[in-house]
């Protein structure tokens, strides 16, 4: 593998070959057993047309005489200006805001996936810049795992431990007999890893397990989120009710005395308090199978049979991340751990539980965990923060209180919002509310390669390069490779790297040398690689020097892979290898959580009805539960304008999957344009009746570029419908999957999709 050229993307590695229209052609990575096509045509005219060619300032912002809350920012008409002028405008505005309102008025959370590459990582660059100039209000946790990341350290271990040490696929094939998953093992989601998937192992992992005789049961509102190459038993379940089913399985095992009492005694704490709740001796109804049937829609006989089946054999339990992206999203993660504890197989090969096989390629990887090359972001002098999904609350209600992990905090009063590498009009819930919230700051700055909906909503837009237009190091945890991402094309038009943009602004503000440390891009890569090398050496991993690595094109760390069994050491000796919980054990009753005395997260796993679900009164108005899952043909909103994503649309609109009976009841046929609506908004989409969707559920993937037409989205972005509320007062996590809607055939004249339009651009003169 010498002197090949590679590039890394979150969804995989490319081989970069000479030739083709703009001098390069991207081919799938030859070493990847399951490469995908996302991004292969990222240089196509459809995609390049939406590149931002030069810095652009909103006309209404430029014309405004005095600065203050931006209010209704008017049409998306921009004036393109030269870099020198843009840099001066940004520096002046940053100085004005921080000197008048302090750095607590700057929101630099800048959540988002940006691109692969450890040096040019947009958020890291922005955070380093802001930290060196007084700091910023940051965001904590992620949209991915808001509720889950907060709860798991209390009751088992930090989520990263559970993900990084997840039992590897080889062990599953060899030892698991029954694999029960809540929310599938989505082949579409497993296409990516944050920082860059290298070789895709999940399709193979599933197929090999099935070929080795592992039986699969998928408990899920949709059937098409797993492919083992063999039969999978589908148990349809009402969305957001999995916790009730898990509790009933425990009840059934308790009733039939198949709980592993010895394991609960030796490795857990609080089993008696938890079982008292399960049995209904604490004032709530017993969590028995018929109770769960009423909540989940799963027949009680199925629940009873499943409990017997699981207890009789080596069983692996899996829970998709989507389950915790919901009202009371902490509960399914905690309860599946409790269920696995009751089965007593945690720490045994092929038994126990995992959180998120299929959520990313990395879960179930045998690769070693090494600290990747990392850009030092410095220290943030501002202590204020928000849980990431509370952005609209913060902007709309400065000074008001919120709780997080048992403490009360207050929202700051934000004047400047600065985003690099994320798209809130993709990721945030209730985008109509978000639009209102974004009227509150004085100024919004966005760095992005493309005219995304967020760029069009900004006041100052700074065009950045893409990974092919710069040199970088590709590395993702547990992917087992470091990629020499060698620049393959010139920067598009006047685009600059995020680092170069911020360096220019830092120079204007007087801290250039602190920001760049006097290094060129290649000197940074060398320094970051050397840092990685030193860390690897401490873990007995020898690596070539930078020049050799760069010339080779990639570094394969596969020799250090090993089979993994989650919590193996803890199981073998819980006293010598305690968990980092208060008790050192798995907590089925958690005193630390009970002490917080929260109404929406108790001291034990519990069924707490979601704010919206198929059992709530709101179903009389909005009888369908909307699942807004991750898209198969793109990463979030990235490359929605590329052909793979566009080809999956119907009449230019996102497909919405609906059960055939719900379609018939609404007179909806395949390909019809329908309107999904609720009290928050509406969107158009193209209907696909599909028996893989259970009745009462619709599935509309995220990622269609928002195309607002009043309160309606014409393109099919589900976040115009989702609810901007927290999973709980513990985590304040994103609850996107808690959402009721109604669907009707759209009989009005069908409006065009304008999502991929360009804003109006004028030149400065
Ligand atoms: N309804 C609903 N909503 C959800 C979810 C859900 O399940 N349902 N899932 C949530 C989850 S898990 C997540 S992680 C979020 C994802 O939300 P985001 O991460 O915000 O989505 P992306 O589309 O990946 O946005 C990345 C942006 O970075 C830009 N970019 C790429 N490379 C660069 C670069 O080098 N420099 C700069 N400056 N910009 C760059 C891209 O053009 C794009 O605009 O969405 C969340 N939203
Ligand atoms: N191609 C592609 N892959 C991606 C991404 C992408 O944008 N595109 N995004 C990545 C990111 S940032 C993340 S965080 C991960 C997220 O990974 P996940 O959270 O696992 O992905 P989702 O597609 O949101 O949901 C997984 C499955 O759960 C099901 N589901 C939804 N609600 C429920 C429920 O209440 N109960 C049950 N039992 N099942 C339910 C959905 O139908 C879906 O099939 O995916 C990553 N992978
Ligand atoms: Mo995510």
Automatic annotation (TrEMBL):
Keyword Oxidoreductase: yes
InterPro entries noted in UniProt: Asp_de-COase-like_dom_sf, MoPterin_dinucl-bd_dom, Mopterin_OxRdtase, Prok_Mopterin_Oxidored
Keywords linked to the UniProt accession: Metal-binding, Molybdenum, Oxidoreductase
Named cofactor requirement(s): Mo-bis(molybdopterin guanine dinucleotide)
Domain of life where this protein originates: Bacteria
Protein family: Belongs to the prokaryotic molybdopterin-containing oxidoreductase family.
Protein name according to UniProt: Biotin transporter BioY
Species of origin: Neoasaia chiangmaiensis
């Amino acid at each position: 593998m010498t002197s090949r050229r590679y590039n890394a993307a979150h969804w995989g590695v490319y081989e970069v070959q000479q030739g083709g229209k703009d001098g390069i052609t991207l081919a799938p990575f030859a070493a990847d057993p399951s490469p995908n096509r996302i991004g292969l045509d990222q240089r196509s005219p459809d995609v390049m047309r939406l590149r931002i060619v030069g810095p652009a300032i909103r006309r209404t912002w430029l014309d405004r005489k005095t600065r203050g809350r931006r209010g209704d920012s008017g049409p998306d008409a921009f004036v393109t200006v030269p870099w020198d002028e843009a840099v001066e405008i940004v520096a002046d505005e940053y100085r004005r805001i921080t000197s008048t309102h302090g750095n607590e008025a700057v929101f630099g959370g800048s959540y988002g996936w940006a691109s692969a590459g450890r040096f040019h990582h947009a958020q890291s660059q922005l955070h380093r810049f802001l930290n060196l100039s007084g700091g910023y209000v940051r965001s904590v946790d992620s949209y991915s795992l808001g509720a889950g990341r907060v709860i798991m350290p209390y009751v088992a271990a930090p989520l990263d431990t559970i993900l990084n040490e997840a039992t590897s696929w080889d062990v599953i094939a060899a030892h698991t007999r029954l694999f029960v998953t809540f929310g599938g093992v989505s082949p579409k989601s497993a296409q990516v890893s944050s920082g860059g998937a290298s070789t895709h192992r999940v399709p193979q992992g599933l197929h090999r397990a099935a070929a080795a005789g592992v039986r699969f049961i998928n408990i899920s509102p949709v059937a098409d989120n797993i492919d083992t190459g063999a039969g999978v038993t589908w148990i349809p379940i009402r969305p957001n009710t999995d916790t009730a089913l898990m509790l009933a399985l425990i009840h059934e095992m308790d009733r039939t005395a198949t709980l592993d009492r010895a394991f609960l005694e030796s490795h857990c704490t609080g089993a008696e308090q938890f079982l008292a709740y399960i049995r209904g001796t604490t004032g709530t109804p017993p969590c028995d199978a018929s109770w769960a049937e009423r909540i989940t829609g799963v027949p009680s006989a199925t629940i009873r049979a499943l409990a017997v089946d699981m207890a009789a054999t080596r069983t692996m339990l899996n829970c998709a991340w989507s389950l915790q992206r919901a009202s009371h999203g902490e509960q399914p993660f905690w309860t599946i751990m409790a269920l696995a504890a009751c089965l007593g197989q945690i720490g045994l090969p092929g038994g126990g539980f995992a959180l998120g096989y299929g959520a990313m390629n990395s879960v179930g990887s045998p690769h070693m965990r090494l600290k990747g090359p990392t850009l030092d972001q410095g220290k943030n002098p501002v202590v204020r923060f928000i849980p990431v999904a509370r952005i609209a609350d913060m902007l709309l209600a400065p000074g008001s209180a919120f709780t997080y992990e048992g403490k009360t905090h207050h929202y700051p009063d934000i004047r400047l919002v600065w985003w690099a590498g994320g798209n809130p009009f993709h990721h945030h819930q209730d985008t109509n509310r978000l639009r209102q919230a974004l009227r509150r700051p004085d100024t919004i700055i966005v760095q992005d390669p493309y005219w995304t909906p967020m760029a069009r909503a900004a006041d100052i837009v700074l065009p950045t390069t893409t990974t092919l237009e710069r040199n970088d190091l590709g590395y993702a945890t547990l992917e087992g490779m470091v990629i020499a991402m060698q620049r393959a094309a010139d920067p598009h038009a006047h685009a600059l790297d995020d680092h170069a943009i911020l360096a220019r602004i830092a120079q204007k503000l007087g801290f250039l040398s602190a920001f760049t440390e006097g290094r060129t891009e290649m000197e940074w890569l060398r320094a970051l690689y050397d840092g990685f090398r030193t860390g690897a050496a401490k873990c007995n991993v020898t690596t070539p020097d930078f020049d050799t690595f760069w010339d080779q094109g990639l570094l394969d760390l596969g020799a250090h892979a090993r089979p993994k069994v989650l919590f193996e050491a803890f199981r073998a000796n819980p006293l010598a290898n305690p968990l980092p919980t208060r008790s050192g054990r798995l907590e089925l009753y958690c005193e630390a959580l009970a002490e917080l005395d929260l109404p929406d997260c108790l001291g034990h796993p519990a069924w707490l009805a979601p704010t919206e679900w198929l059992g709530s009164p709101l179903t009389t108005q909005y009888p369908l539960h909307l699942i807004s899952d991750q898209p198969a043909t793109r990463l979030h909103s990235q490359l929605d304008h590329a052909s793979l994503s566009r080809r999956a649309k119907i009449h230019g609109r996102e497909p919405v999957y609906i059960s055939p009976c719900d379609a018939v009841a609404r007179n909806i046929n395949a390909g019809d344009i329908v309107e999904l609506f609720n009290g928050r908004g509406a969107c158009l989409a193209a209907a696909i009746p599909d028996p893989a969707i259970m009745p009462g559920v619709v599935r509309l993937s995220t990622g269609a570029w928002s195309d607002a037409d009043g309160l309606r989205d014409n393109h099919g972005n589900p976040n115009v419908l989702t609810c901007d509320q927290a999973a709980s007062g513990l985590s304040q996590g994103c609850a996107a999957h808690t959402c009721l809607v109604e669907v009707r055939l759209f009989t009005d004249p069908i409006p065009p999709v304008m999502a991929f339009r360009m804003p109006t651009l004028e030149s400065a003169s």
